[in-house]
## 1
Amino acid sequence: MNITATGGAEADAPHDASHGHAQGSLAKLAVGAIGIVFGDIGTSPIYAFRQTFAGNHTLAPDQLHIYGVLSLIFWSMMIIVTLNYVTIIMRADNKGEGGSLALLALINRSISGKRRWSGGIVLLGVFATALFYGDAMITPAISVLSAVEGLTTVQASFQPFVIPVSIGLLVGLFAIQSRGSAKVGLFFAPVMLLYFTVIAVLGITHIADHPAVLLATVNPLNAVDFFVMEPARAFISMGSVVLAVTGAEALYADMGHFGRRPIRAAWLYFVLPTLLLNYMGQGAMLLAQTPAEALQTVRNPFFYLAPEMLRLPLVLLATAATIIASQAVISGAFSVTQQAIQLGFIPRLRITHTSEKARGQIYIPAVNWALMVMVILLVLTFGSSSNLAAAYGIAVTGAMLIDGVLIGVVLIGLWRWNRIAAGALLSVFFAVSGLYFAANLLKVPDGGWFPLLVGAIAFTLLTTWAKGRKLMIDRMNEASLPMEIFIKSAAGSAARVPGTAVFMTSSGSGVPHALLHNLKHNKVLHERIILLTVRIEDVPYVADDTRLETYDYGSGFYRLKLRYGFMEEIDVPAALANLKGCGPVCKMMDTSFFLARQTLITSARPGMAIWREKVFAWMLRNAESAMEFFKLPTNRVIELGSQLEI
């Protein structure tokens, strides 16, 4: 399977050492990370603890269960988030970038050399990406809905307004995406700093009523006791406890925005302590109440932490925090989609840059509106955050398991760790994440099927596009004429006209179909002919001084390779303006761009099933025009069509 946009990434691809990270002091970057990176995991206390006790499988809010759940939450955060993601996985950055696709590219460049990835590693990484889309749909729905449900703790009569208000907020959130998050982002950090501080203070006020909860939380024996006394209930509860660590993968995926050290510092010294204090506060509050009071409070313990007069401000603050968390997930969906497009797993889509300064701030209309429709359908279908929680967790734990496999490849194949040490570490992680995944499988009938269905559909589309593109390029190369033969036969006989003709081609050799069609129908060749291939490397950014690679065939024929990183915006005219070694400077008014547009004809030839060929043909028809994707001047483009069997 081919992962580059033009036929294979190179192991020695050049890169930009700056990685495109934000610049500033460690403290400033850590504060910025708090506003962007930790929204998902930061809003988990709103529903995670409640769902464990009052979800589909209820637990009595007594000392055994509360201590056991708090211990599970603490050690899950330490093993999954702190040890696995923050300490180990975040070290496996691809030139500063993180995420499943960036990790795949790192493995390809560092371990595989010039060989293709093994099919299993590629499929795992693609499936992790597919699961992310399911997570990106559920996170805004459950986060905003759980916060707005806090209104019922202020006044029970607000219940009928929960869904309409939630949908209104979500529609507004998606509607402003086209304007970019730069201006709104100025308020992210202050709001999240206030939110984390408030939830920590609320937790401390109740810990004071039951201080024994502090030692009980960090004592792993309480989790062990829970499993010994009630193994079935303990196992089932893990399906809800895992909600406390949802968003852990965002720390790795968003590493490219701030860098490893600021995210690590923000987590260890601020976010982790505040979250633990809040969870312990919820447990302490329940333990300090009578059994009857606890049964009432456990339905929404997060909001009951605040006294009645401060409950409405807490609801408003939590709602703001969940909107920020949703914004981060939506932006993440845009970034992941851009990476997948550049790496050849998704067809070209319209991408709008919403900031002149921050190249990572993009807007993809197709993704935005598709997410909005699915999020609203989720809210209307499931009706409450408690029901949505049943659908949450499968995608997260599945992605965690896949990340564990990929980091195992890095530990042993790239970092050359001692196999015994690596095996011991990985066994701990797989034991924990495997139990969580198994516990979440129990929720499949209650809603866990949704992220699996979304993941299966996304996985099918991603792999169909990648496979179809490879087959299409292979079929085109089968009939390709060597360039040297073409020049000898055509250069001397065809009439030459002034100007430059740029023929876009996905192949690094042979004669492009558009060039053959142009000569066949127009009977002329331009004075200068450039065969242009855009290659997406398996690094995030490519240095400007190594972006262009040229080859002179003679007789006015040149082959040009343009290199881009998978996080970069492609701008062909801007690159041609810096072109040297191919004659005079390219002037757009004297340059014509020739594009080939293939119409696919399904056939019984080996390669893909007929139904997948039809899906690929549909995706190709609906892909963004190459003219717009490569930013070609609209009045200088000529498209030549052809039919192709795959």
Note: The first strand starts at residue 352 and ends at 353.
## 2
Amino acid sequence: MTAASSAVERLGALAGLRGRAAVDHAAATLLAFVAVLVLAANDGGYFPPEWGWSTVALAWVGVIALIVGRGVALVREDRIMLGILAGITIWTALSGLWAAAVQAPVLEVERTLVYLVLLATLLITARSGGAALMLGAGTVAGVLISGFALLTRLRPDLFGLYDDPVAHGRLYQPIGYWNALGIFAAMTAALCLGAAMRSRTPWVRMSAAAALPVVVSTLFFTFSRGSMMTLVIGVGVSLALDRDRLRALAIALVLLPWVVLAVGDARLQGALAQGGAGVHAASNQGRPLLLVIALCSAASAATMWAVGRAERRLTFGPAIRRAYIVCLAIAALVLAAGAVAVYGSPPHMVSRVRHALESKGPAKDANQNLRLETLSLNGRPMLWRSALADVGDHPLLGSGSGTFEQYWNQHRPRNYVARDAHSLYLERLAEQGPVGLVLVLALVLYPIWLAVRARRDPVVLTALGALVAFALHAGFDWDWEMPAVVCLALVAVAAILVSAREEFPRPLSSSVRTGLVAVAVVLGVAAFAGGVGNQAIASSVSAAGGGSYAKAESEARRATSWAPWSDQGWVALGAALVGQGRRDEAAAALRTATRKDPVDWIAWRRLADVTVDPERIHALRMSAKLNPKATRRSLGHDDRVRLGLTGNH
């Protein structure tokens, strides 16, 4: 027995699993923990080099499980879910046939393969009865990442991650984007609260309760209003479906004061909520707040212990339950009356909300607490309108996966940089047409439907809260592009699927196993090639940035061999050759880049820098056509006049 299996067996014993049963759940448990933790710790898995290596590692685990695993089974629901995700992957790849260039769809496929192979490996390694351990492992990883993120805010003197000119005081490390960290923490909080409300194991309930003030404080410092809203809705949905909802709500209410106390004290610390306040000022406020949060966590765990003791000793009759319901109803009426008194009648509220959504948010350098007092969508409607315009131009098949940035650069109404439409569903409709939208809707709605059917299972209800939060938040941000966020959601999906299995499902036949091994090997080889190519591109760019142009050239040439579909290796090669003064060779490399991706405005702009008229003017015209605003800013007055980019064009 390995050390890892032994550790899982001890953990399983604490959770009520003994001997071989705990070891059988080791693989899925460790996989859920490691996948979420490693991706979140590496910039959320956002950058392409992470995708290939992640897929290779996951495929390798899947192959081993298929070859040596006992009782490997995939029931009908598992196969449907994997079929949906495989359909998304295949349709993403097919969109390269009608996209202007194949590079963007290939990158989208590489990212999507991480999700497909992770879910497949989780389902292959999971065993009936192991959903709780698997979901718990993902939750622990989420708590560790959220706790580390909070430490970087409260003790910037130790981590040096505070004064970032882009974040403007919003917490974003280690995932790399504040709203992504926000929904990651929100999903983790939903899982912790679900465990505190529904677990049958006292130490699990106490640990989950202790984690809540930490995770919610992390969520607060991201100032991600959408994540906070989706947390409330996700927990609300799981409570509404809970057969013992009154008990669960009571537990949530007795834990709430400690969360409110921690967040309330955090809100008073101005230096922690404003970029540029300085490391010294932030640390001076962060140290005592860290103590407050630690005390709130201890009090939350103690409260959960007291609740457990009370549940074992006290019995509440129908009269007390009716009184409890009446109190809840009165509280709801008081809140509704207060809302009307402050904000006016419901029609007036709707009008105010609509105006607030369209209003401009607080200044980026202002205290970020002000964000919590506004409903501004921060330019998202502009992106959504652009996505809808893209739908109008490509109504049947879309413009191709990963092409929204190209459409936005060409048609954006003002100088606003964006790579994504900030809505998974609108972006899918724009890039992949109705088929792409239906597939991604099925991806989130099918497991939710399964969870509603299996709502008697406490593990399912807990996973459902996190999954609903993700499904809603993905509608107004770019969560799909953050693998750490999606993988935590997929752990919840896998927990729902495994919980719905029969106790002894029929194992896969040897022929099916062999076929799956072959598929995993093929995907692993393809991912390896993509990983080498993406890593080489990143290494070349990094070397050129550091002035090591010979190394940059070597890495760029390696990238052109391993990723022949991409123009990025040739763009990187051009930069490396320019750094060495070999402008003619750089021009040849950039010409190749523009042939491979004729809609890459950066390749055209760099080609213009190393050529002379008339080729230079042609390259500038192409760059201006693909991104008029960025090209205009980079040119002198005479060139702008020659290209017709003067005035407000």
Note: Confidence is low (pLDDT under 50) at residues 8-22.
## 3
Amino acid sequence: MNAKESYIYRLLDGTDKKFIVPVYQRPYSWKRANCELLLSDLMTVYRQKHESHFFGSIVYVTSNIGGRNEYLIIDGQQRITTISLLLLAIRNYVVEKHLEIDINPEKITNAYLTDQYAQNDKKLKLKLVQGDDDAYDRLIENTDPVQHNAVTVNYNYFYEEIEKFSPEEIKGLYDAVMKLQIVNISLEPEHGDDPQLIFESLNSTGKDLEESDKIRNYVLMDMSAKNQEIFYRKYWEKLEKEISREDIDTFIRYYLAVKNRELANKNRLYFAFKTFRKQMGGDIEDILKDMLIYAGYFKSIRNAKDEDKDKCSLVLARLNKLDVNTSIPLLFDLFSARDNGFLDDEELLKAFEIIENYIIRREICNLQTNVYNKLFVSMGAEVSGYVEKSEVGYLEAFEYAILSKTGRSRFPNNHDLSDKFLGFELYNAKPAVKKYILERLENFSSKEKVAVEEQIDDGTLTIEHIMPRTLTKEWKDALGENWELIHTKYKDTIGNLTLTAYNSDYSNLPFLKKRDMDGKGFTYSKLSLNQYVKNQQKWGLEEIEKRAEILCDLAEKIWWMPETSFNPNEEDEWVAWDDDYDYTGKAIVKMRFMGDVIDTDSIADAYRKININLYTLDPAEYAQFDNCNHNSDKTKLRNPYELSPSMYIEMNLSSQSKMDVISALFTYYDFGSNDLQFLVKAKKEKVAFNIDDESTYSSVTAGQLAFYLISKLMENEKIEADELEKLKTKEYSRETFPKIVYPVLADSRDANRGKSSKLRYRKTPVNYKGKDVYISNEWFDFNRDDLISWYKKRQGV
């Protein structure tokens, strides 16, 4: 890094110079107030005869391109652009007014604004970002200005202010510009200067960049100016057009959630993207291409409308109304599965509906929504795991995954729904949910659709309490001696709510007057929600319960419960500390703690080792954790375990209590899901697979069987080297195993992946004559007989 004091005019002066504001920088954004302050400071310099005025720093990277020095501006674009505009305004005013003062307009033009010896298309010394560049060029060329652009607006301000000055003041202003002192900082990447890190540091204070701005800068900064232009226009500009500037941070957050299987903090997307980029490796262009694909999914979700004819779009429009944005990562996974051939359009529609049904059933059953962040992010990977291991269809695996959730994450069944439906206070639900549920109940079984939500919004329809919110004496008498209990418990519930255009007419009139009011009563209503109501002779507890029962039957049809016969073979699985997981009948055999794999033999052992590690990490911080299950005095614990002579933990706890303490500890330390995971194993014994006993082959999946059999042949060198190479081709693999999709063997796990996020080969390679070979996991039950026959033939059986 080379830093020195200089004057801004000296930086601008000279031939063969080009100052480039990279496309990843924000557009020129100085406001009028900034320009007013600059002008005021400059006039103070002139009037008080100051020798200089500090104007900040200009940070850049220089490179020689075809004999011309290019200055890539890392920081200071706002200042250098503003001074260029002010000089241009001074030049134009002096020329247009034919002022005879000691200012040389040609020098301003040739020394500071243009390079008179450059080629025509390269004469302007300052190249701004898209939009700004055109506005600046038109000002220089004195053609039609770009209206409502900050470049044009600020130039006009300077020109108008200069008009108010005397010739002596204009000369004084110009001289003051020549006294603007800067710190001229030239970065030298070849000597270790990292422009990206310096950019981050310079932007760590002041007005924050959007996370997407930082990501764009990170993607483009290391490229040449030419490649920056190409990549910006080819990818990032398209990304912003697909999504809109307002939504791009949201999109990136959910895109990264699918890729990393963790929902990043909104304010740390940039760092999450950097981590993702390093983990992926390869060419950044592949990531940008992939982002554009997902941007298309995001656009389909965001732009879905009620009037769309596509059925999938109709479901997405309803999900948008529910405002459960956390479902977007799972929707991304489903779109990707469709595009990669795992789902057809009908299956995609069904999967979307299942998500909708899951959300609404949980809303009616008053189940927490804070489980969605983790659940909707992780489920796509879970489904892919089932498909990979069990050779099941994607939709069936998806249905199993969502139905298998327990506890706070569960999918409420029909019993849960009917149990909670009567007491569901729809009136107190969120406005969007309230309108959505009433619209679905009204229109589901009717061919004549009513625009319920729109008519509620414009006041045509209102939500009516059949039993009014304020009871008259007549209503109390009609409800009977338990009127207060009935009213308190059921007034806002779904069984007592309907829609009407005559809410103000009904007020708190008796039921029969509401029912029979001339031309306005329930009797005259064509709304399906009022069909049961219009046939009742009174309205009380019995009628409310009966109507709730009828509507509940309808709700079970609208928000139907998926079914699946799929039951995956239970295998070991990794579970995060904050998963809603039932450990009943399970054993923890390993844990991953902050990157380290630690063997354990029980929940108690895991509990003990976690506390040891956390205490060792920071004893003082650990001691601040307010929990009755650790103490510096071991006599206060029933069964103490010593972490140190001054800290003990209680071991006399149930397994669930131990897991609760672990959860509380990791919440206290603000650790993420990936910081602690358990390898969970079912305690029940499985049928043991024996490669020498063909009768046990059915105890494993076709993919596992293929791995065992092919591994055995390779280890015993029963496959010749030339056949091994042939098995890496699709043609020979299909000839050997009809209907197989991908080559049986590969040199890397990433082989034959294409654009899919799915890996085609098993994680563990087999070493064959000193070289790792990967075995396909894309096997199905109809391959078993061919596989076993091929194995036996090579074994000489």
Note: The mean pLDDT is 86.
